[in-house]
Design brief:
heterodimer, A: about 675 residues, alpha/beta, Aldehyde Oxidoreductase, domain 4, 3 domains, five-stranded mixed β-sheet, flat, B: about 160 residues, alpha+beta, Ubiquitin-like (UB roll), 2 domains, 5 helices, 5 strands, about 15% strand
């Protein structure tokens, strides 16, 4: 629990500003929320400290996963505090130092944390002005703050000097007013990645790279198939290897498909640990009757809760495969216990506070005895929400009595991490001869509710439903969640409807969209692409799609060539609007990256499984986009300085697959109703 | 298997005692604590583990440490000289050719190798030369741009 006293004890004197979400927040209202309840925090969301030496440190529970939150949040401070970028240090996702945060997902850092941190910085600047006015006995209006200095006439001091001898704590509500986007000087500009140099020189330490004195290396035995139960185990051969210690333990919680047994080995070096793991003689009782990737769509339908009294026989089925996030840094954790029973864990996760809860719950200790640190991680895309590696490392370290590093292999990451859900989606719509949508029915089995609701105006009956069902594979969050699946189906089917009445797909969409921001995005993409002037040649096709989610508006136009069944995406023009742009260079990078990632799910990424085993469990079997797959990408950023910024990590992925699919149809006349789309791909049995 | 007791890494003799069958990747990371070299797949598919062996890019996850005894190994930590970044490191920063950065060390060293034998590559040559490297964040066009920029500035430095 962090209080005013412990804060200054840890940080030293100076000035601290705490942002309190409930306006009547208490002076000591900081500290960390407790327990598994992940409701939005109502207390402190960020704090900022200026030391007596002038060091500026900002604390947030948000984390850096490659999306450049570290840079954009630093820009927020620089903008409002009027201090240089390189004078500001951002402490992120450290459960002992930063305020509680639910996690970094759902494109919430920019809309929620970014303004709060700006408010903290603005309040700090105002306090520095007041301190200077009092010190120099001058009118605060005569004081300027620029470039990390406070100046009045010929007098000028650094921030630290003003805070010397102080233990000032200012608690401010989250409703402070801020500099309008039209007057930004640091925000809104292409500021470089703040820790870029550490990355290009190899000095940035990821969780995979953490090294602790006396550290051992741990490996964990997993079942050969999901749901298999350990029938017998002979550890004698492993224990005969010098330096190998076998650990047997039980997790409190059953781990999806992997059971609650922990069988692991620790050793002084990774090679010995691997030998130890390989020497374990385990027999397993298989879990029979599991569906495969070919029949999983029928499985969803069979296990759906509730049913339509009279299903519409005209519904058109689409399917979406499970895919793997494949963060290039797999899950990793280093765990260390101290003599007093306090646990410290370094791990790559999007939810450090959630992992703290998982650890405390599973180990039966207080959250006050668990410290989770999150070094900027080697990406996540929604795939690093939980603490599997942390739990393993913690239990292995406890048994070994030494710090233990547990790094997952690529095969473990793909097999035992969780997947973006597969899905079956059934759709039907009607359109009148003028091109107005008159009916819309949309049923999603398993893939999820994100962007389920159509942005199109429907004059008649509209049904949109998520059907809860069962997944044979472990599934979870993903970049944009079900936004890609729902957009793929909706935008592909809208294309089908446009063709059914012989109307241009752009014209058809514009006839049915009222939302001004969505119309603007579509027109911007189509205009730059040259949609109306496009010229069809054999083997080439053009497609477009549009969508909105999480305050972001996206439209994509794609050109493809199809030669001997091979699809090559030649060009993608994508327009994106998410309010005022915080950092145009990093936003462009995010949008371009989402196009690349979306292309993988559109054309080839697919988890194949059978008999409870993941077949595509490594990069030689699970194909992700490479240099040669890249189309010419043109990203249009629509900067709306009159609107508050929204997040941008997710929505730019959603329009990619349907734009490509519609272009394949244009090129071949073949409508592919399955992700990934490979020409000739037949509809799986439903 | 014979043990390896000395390696030439980043211009210095490093003493160690490792089973020669171990991967160069593991020895660099776990014995020498040069963690800038990254694991990504363990099967040579992603090239995140790329280092230079006698100037040529090599996938350290598939290289036995015994195979580099007596050769000059350069990792990402050894690319900058006296704090001055290599032109490719500069170019990656200027082009913002990274997001999470996990693939970046391998990308840069792969590009060093590419420019060594193709000093002025076309875009197609960069794409085919770098196609073994995976960037899951999808910054490929920026990496191409960075390599072009470094080539123009004489990236072989």
């Amino acid at each position: 629990m962090i209080t005013r006293r412990t804060f200054f004890a840890a940080m030293g004197g100076g000035l601290a500003v705490w942002i309190v979400d409930n306006a009547d927040g208490q002076e000591s209202g900081g500290g960390a929320r407790r327990g598994m309840n992940q409701a939005a925090p109502t207390d402190v969301s960020a704090w900022l400290h200026i030391s007596e030496a002038g060091a500026i440190t900002v604390f947030t529970g948000k984390v850096e996963v490659g999306q450049n939150a570290r840079t954009s949040l630093t820009q927020a401070v620089a903008e409002e505090l009027h201090a240089p970028m390189d004078s500001i240090r951002m402490v992120m996702g450290d459960t002992a130092l930063t305020p509680f945060d639910q996690g970094t997902f759902g494109s919430q850092t920019t809309p929620q944390m970014w303004p709060r941190i700006r408010k903290a910085a603005a309040a700090a600047r105002e306090t520095l002005v007041a301190l200077a006015a009092s010190k120099w006995n001058v009118d605060p209006a005569s004081i300027a703050v620029a470039d990390g200095k406070v100046t009045a006439g010929s007098r000028s001091v650094g921030f630290g000097e003003l805070t010397q001898g102080q233990k000032l704590m200012k608690t401010i509500p989250a409703s402070e007013t801020l500099t309008p986007a039209t007057e930004w000087k640091v925000a809104g500009r292409p500021v470089a990645k703040v820790n870029g140099r550490a990355i290009v020189t190899g000095t940035h330490q990821y969780a995979y790279d953490v090294h602790r004195p006396g550290m051992l290396y741990g490996k964990v035995l997993y079942p050969p198939q999901f749901g298999a139960k350990l029938a017998s185990l002979d550890t004698s051969a492993a224990e005969a290897i010098p330096g190998v210690k076998v650990v047997r333990d039980t997790f409190k919680a059953n781990r999806d498909g992997a059971g609650s047994d922990l069988v692991g080995v620790v050793a002084l070096d990774p090679a010995t640990a691997e030998k130890g793991l390989a020497a374990l003689r385990a027999e397993w009782t298989p879990a029979p009757g599991q569906p495969s990737s070919k029949d999983v769509f029928a499985y969803y339908k069979k296990h759906a809760r509730g049913s339509d009294a009279a299903p519409n026989p005209n519904l058109v089925p689409y399917t979406v495969a499970y895919i793997a996030h494949t963060p290039l840094e797999p899950r990793a954790a280093v765990a260390e216990w101290d003599a007093a029973g306090k646990l410290t864990v370094w791990t790559g996760t999007q939810r450090p506070f959630g992992v703290r809860s998982e650890l405390a719950l599973d180990l039966g200790i207080s959250e006050d005895n668990v410290h989770v640190l999150m070094p900027d991680t080697g990406s996540g895309y929604g795939g690093k929400h939980n603490g599997d590696a942390a739990l393993e490392a913690a239990r292995l370290a406890k048994a070994a009595g030494k710090p233990v590093k547990r790094t997952w292999t690529r095969e473990e990451e793909i097999t035992w991490g969780y997947f973006r859900p597969g899905g079956l989606i059934e759709v039907f719509g009607k359109v009148d001869p003028q091109g107005k949508l008159t009916a819309w029915e949309f049923h999603n089995y398993n893939s999820g509710p994100s962007a389920l609701q159509s942005p199109y105006t429907v004059t008649g009956e509209k049904t949109e439903q998520l059907h809860q069902t069962q997944s044979p594979l472990r599934q979870g969050s993903y970049r944009g969640l079900a936004g890609t699946a729902n957009h793929f189906v909706r935008e592909s089917y809208m294309d089908e409807l446009a063709h059914s009445i012989g109307m241009d797909p752009l014209e058809f969409r514009m006839k049915n969209i009222e939302d001004e921001r969505l119309r603007n995005a579509l027109q911007a993409a189509a205009g730059k692409f040259g949609w109306t002037a496009r010229k069809k040649t054999p083997g080439r096709g053009f497609g477009l799609s549009v969508g909105m989610e999480k305050g972001g508006y996206v439209a994509a136009c794609a050109e493809v060539s199809v030669t001997a069944g091979m699809v090559k995406v030649l060009r993608v023009v994508q327009a994106f609007e998410c309010g005022a742009v915080v950092n145009p260079e990093h936003l462009r990078n995010q949008v371009d990256g989402a196009i690349a990632m979306g292309l993988g799910g559109a054309l080839f990424e697919q988890i194949e499984f059978a008999d409870g085993k993941i077949v595509t469990d490594r990069l030689s079997k699970y194909r992700v986009p490479r240099f040669a797959d890249m189309p010419a990408i043109e990203t249009i950023l629509l900067d709306r300085k009159d609107l508050t910024p929204a997040g941008a990590g997710e929505t730019p992925i959603m329009a990619v697959a349907p734009a490509i699919g519609n272009a394949i149809f244009d090129a071949t006349g073949q409508r592919i109703r399955s992700l990934p789309m490979t020409p000739g791909n037949q509809m799986p049995a439903v | 298997m014979a043990r390896v007791t000395q390696l030439d890494v980043n211009g210095a003799a490093r003493h160690l005692d490792a089973d020669g069958d171990r991967t160069l990747l593991s020895v660099l990371r776990d014995d020498l604590e040069l963690t800038g070299t990254k694991y990504g797949c363990g099967e040579g598919q992603c090239a995140a583990c790329t280092v230079l062996v006698d100037g040529q890019p090599a996938k350290s996850c598939l290289t036995k440490v015994s195979a580099v005894a007596g050769k000059k190994v350069v990792t990402i930590e050894g690319l900058a000289v006296d704090g001055k970044l290599h032109p490719l490191q500069e170019a990656f920063l200027d082009a913002d050719a990274m997001q999470c950065g996990w693939c970046t060390p391998g990308m840069i060293l792969g590009a060093v190798g590419l420019l060594r034998h193709t000093p002025n590559p076309t875009e197609a040559e960069i794409v085919s030369g770098m196609n073994g490297h995976i960037c899951r964040c999808g910054t490929y066009p920026r990496v191409v741009h960075a390599i072009q920029t470094a080539a123009r500035k004489g990236g072989r430095a």
